């Protein structure tokens, strides 16, 4: 063929991090069929959907089989019943978000990658280590990326003064808190520093709050809109994946306030146009299930699941504390980000952990150069497997 391709794809890594992990684990299992492998690598939930969510999905699915209640294409921006329910969720956090500023999606990952469709060729600021989607999506679009170093010295929570250049105007800034992969969380003060910087430089923050339901600490914001000035500089992307276990169901939302202006243009107007063109909405049964997750009964059931995962995270934290190993996360996050012992490299530690105690984690190197020498474990496995892993790790670390 004589067609042209997007040459920017040649600039991304040929192998996705979790594909490489999967290949190494499959090889080990094939060669060692008698060994029990405990998987603590990919951040996928393992508990079933809460019952109120299932009941709502079943009821809505039955409605789709009756002529009088059948529904065709969903609204591109989400059904009003769900948008209003999400707005009520923000109200419970003390934040006033209008329902028409909320756009229902098939998950945070999609919108975090797709939002740059409506933006031009801007400089992009991304903390390192980082969730790979931020980097890959912008690399695919040919955007210039400036990395801000997250290190053990700053608790993997870099602030604007760590940006390697001061000549910033109109950048796009990615922030995730609680962070994936490090589990570190910005306090009000830390997040305010980023909001103030965005206001001063005319920049836009894309804020990933997918893990906000894990926050217990009152010093940590649940949403960027708790910070003064954020309505003028921030888009927030959130998800039902970790809160309600929707990793296999797919539903999330993005908040684009009508106060976000690029010159004389409202970003929400551009996003509405983009979604109407490229997105056909989320299915009715899934949106009813999401609505149920935010009901009083649903929230209670979802938080029981989160409490289960947080117990796993606490066990991992206690082990690392007892061993004197540096780590972040484990408190208000399902992730524990630890320093590899004996100055081992990330992939070296991965192979040693898999081969000697049959535990799978995620090498920090896969999240950026500052992840080298660090390792991510997740608390999304079963309690029983977490206990087994703790016993194996006691003698290994």
Explain what the structure shows:
This protein is α/β, with parallel strands linked by helices and 397 residues long. Helices cover 37% and strands 14% of the residues. The strands form four sheets. Strands 2-8-7-6-5-3-4 form a seven-stranded mixed beta sheet, with helices on both faces. It has a four-stranded antiparallel beta sheet with strand order 11-12-15-14. It is globular and about 60 Å long.
Secondary structure elements and pairings:
Elements: H1 17-31, E1 38-39, H2 51-63, H3 80-92, E2 102-105, H4 108-114, E3 124-128, H5 132-140, E4 145-149, E5 172-176, H6 188-201, E6 204-208, E7 234-239, E8 252-255, E9 261-262, E10 265-266, H7 267-278, H8 284-293, H9 296-323, E11 327-329, E12 335-339, H10 346-357, E13 359-360, E14 362-363, E15 374-378, H11 383-396
Parallel strand pairs: 1-13, 3-4, 3-5, 5-6, 6-7
Antiparallel strand pairs: 2-8, 7-8, 9-10, 11-12, 12-15, 14-15
Helix pairs in contact: 2-8, 3-8, 4-5, 9-11
| Main beta-sheet annotation | 7 strands, mixed
Task: Write down the Rg.
Answer: 21 Å
- Tell me the number of strands: 15
Strand order of the largest sheet: 2-8-7-6-5-3-4
| Structural class designation | alpha/beta
On the 0 to 100 scale, the average pLDDT is 96
Shape: globular
> What's the helix-strand series?
HEHHEHEHEEHEEEEEHHHEEHEEEH
Share of residues in helices: 25-40%
Summary keywords:
single chain, 397 residues, alpha/beta, 7-stranded mixed β-sheet, 4-stranded antiparallel β-sheet, 11 helices, 15 strands, 14% strand
């Amino acid at each position: 063929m004589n067609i042209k391709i997007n040459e920017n794809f040649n600039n991304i890594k040929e192998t996705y991090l979790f594909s490489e992990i999967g290949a190494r684990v499959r090889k080990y299992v094939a060669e060692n069929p008698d060994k029990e492998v405990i998987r603590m690598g990919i951040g996928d939930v393992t508990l079933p959907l809460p019952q109120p969510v299932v009941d709502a999905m079943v009821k809505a699915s039955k409605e789709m089989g009756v002529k009088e209640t059948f529904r065709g294409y969903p609204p591109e921006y989400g059904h009003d019943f769900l948008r209003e329910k999400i707005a009520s969720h923000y109200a419970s956090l003390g934040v006033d978000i209008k329902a028409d500023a909320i756009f229902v999606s098939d998950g945070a990952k999609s919108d975090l990658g797709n939002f740059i469709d409506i933006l031009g060729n801007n400089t992009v600021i991304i903390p390192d280590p980082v969730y790979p989607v931020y980097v890959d999506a912008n690399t695919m679009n040919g955007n210039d990326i400036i990395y801000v170093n997250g290190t053990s010295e700053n608790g993997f929570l870099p602030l604007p003064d760590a940006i390697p250049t001061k000549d910033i105007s109109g950048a796009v800034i990615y922030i995730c808190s609680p962070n994936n992969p490090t589990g570190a969380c910005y306090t009000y003060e830390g997040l305010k520093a980023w909001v103030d910087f965005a206001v001063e430089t005319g920049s836009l923050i894309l804020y990933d709050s997918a893990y906000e339901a894990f926050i217990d600490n009152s010093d940590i914001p649940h949403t960027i809109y708790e910070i003064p000035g954020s309505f003028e500089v921030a888009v927030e992307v959130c998800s039902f994946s970790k809160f309600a276990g929707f990793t296999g169901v797919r539903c999330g939302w993005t908040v684009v306030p009508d106060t976000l202006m690029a010159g004389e243009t409202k970003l929400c107007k551009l996003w509405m146009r983009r979604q109407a063109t490229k997105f056909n909405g989320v299915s009715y049964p899934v949106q009813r299930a999401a609505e149920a997750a935010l009901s009083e009964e649903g929230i209670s059931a979802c938080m029981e699941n989160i409490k289960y995962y947080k117990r796993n995270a606490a066990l991992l934290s206690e082990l690392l504390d007892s061993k004197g190993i540096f780590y972040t996360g484990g408190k208000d996050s399902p992730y524990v980000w630890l320093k590899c012992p004996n100055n081992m490299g990330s992939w070296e530690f991965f192979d040693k952990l898999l081969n000697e105690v049959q535990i799978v984690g995620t090498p920090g190197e896969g999240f950026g150069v500052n992840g080298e020498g660090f390792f991510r474990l997740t608390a999304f496995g079963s309690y029983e497997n977490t206990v087994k892993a703790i016993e194996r790790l006691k003698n290994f670390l």
